[in-house]
Amino acid sequence: MKLKDIISIIEDYAPLALQESYDNAGLVVGSSNMEVDKALISFDVTEEVIDEAIKIGANLIISHHPIIFSGIKKLNGSNYVERIVIKAIKNDIALYAAHTNLDNVINGTNKILAEKLNLKNIKTLSPQKNLLNKLVTYIPVDYKEKVQRAIFEAGAGHIGKYDSCSFEAKGVGTFRAQEGSTPFVGNIGKMHNEAEIRLETIFPSHIKSKVITALLSAHPYQEVAYDIYKIENNISNIGAGIIGELSEPQEELVFLNNVKEITKAEGIKYTNLLNKKVRKVAICGGSGAFLISKAKRAGADVYITGDIKYHEFFDADNSILVADIGHYESEHFTNTLLLSIIKEKIPTFAIQISDISTNPVNYL
Ligand SMILES: [Zn+2]
């Protein structure tokens, strides 16, 4: 199986364009044209995981965290990152990471924990801004259906839990074909009026070229008139963290113990109990202290994340219960998620989750 085909399965689910600017998600080591015999999924890439891949004959490791984050100036094995990269290259093992792009889709990193907690009405906690564009185009009446279908199939027209969203208005388009043009309708040098539909819809930036290609190939005109505007609306299902509701409110400690059991966290650091039942739950796997204030504003009773620094715990300010369950514990379900994403598309492909816990943190 070509590596690039596996990559497009992952990136259809979690487009690379959605990764944070500081991130380095995507193909980290290897060529996308290489043939992949077998793949191994692991939360992090460590030397042990590379050894495991060699042992089982896997020449691709798919991880959540990219092994290379900041630039590498030397490859002489002087630290664990260099040793791992050298080992992967020497053994022709490709390394691919689905990181903040997977965090930022609503069915991404936080999905499995939310499902295990039976959360309902799940929404993105911090929707990304400025990712949306508006497309306006003008289509001869008889071709409206065809063009509309093509741009919807390319991914335009989604608003929340609705697809095929657009607006149309009737009008008249005018043009005069010049020498050298091949007009679909009308004659060279003659003013032409055509009954047209003005069609408006929206699409996220990362599918712009797909939408425009679909428009131009479905539209009958030689020169298609269309406008693209950046719009300020949030995209409701793209962004960091999620928030949802328990169907039955729970006592705070009952809830935390449940989280401990589900995530196999050995310890949970939490702020003062507020002696009120937990109903609204916010989650951000990994380092999520940056969303404490968002979780408070969204009315969450509890916020689950990892890597909270001492002083950041004060931000709870007795108005929300903040629980640090550990970085690994809050995100390691990405292994299961990545397996299901790939198995759904290529059920017979040889892929498995690593037996190794790469959590560098131990508890006494
Ligand atoms: Zn992480």
Structural write-up:
The chain has 364 residues and is an alpha/beta fold. It folds into three domains: 3-98 and 333-353, 3-Layer(aba) Sandwich (Udp-n-acetylmuramoylalanyl-d-glutamate--2,6- Diaminopimelate Ligase, Chain: A, domain 1), CATH 3.40.1390; 109-127 and 238-325, NIF3 (NGG1p interacting factor 3)-like (Udp-n-acetylmuramoylalanyl-d-glutamate--2,6- Diaminopimelate Ligase, Chain: A, domain 1, 3-Layer(aba) Sandwich), CATH 3.40.1390.30; 130-233, Alpha-Beta Plaits, CATH 3.30.70. The chain has twelve helices and 15 strands. A six-stranded mixed sheet has the order 5-10-12-13-14-11. Strands 1-4-3-2-15 form a five-stranded mixed sheet, with helices on both faces. A four-stranded antiparallel sheet has the order 7-8-6-9. The longest helix has 12 residues, at 252-263. 37% of the residues are buried. The chain binds zinc ion. Zinc ion (ZN) binds at residues 65, 286, 327, 331.
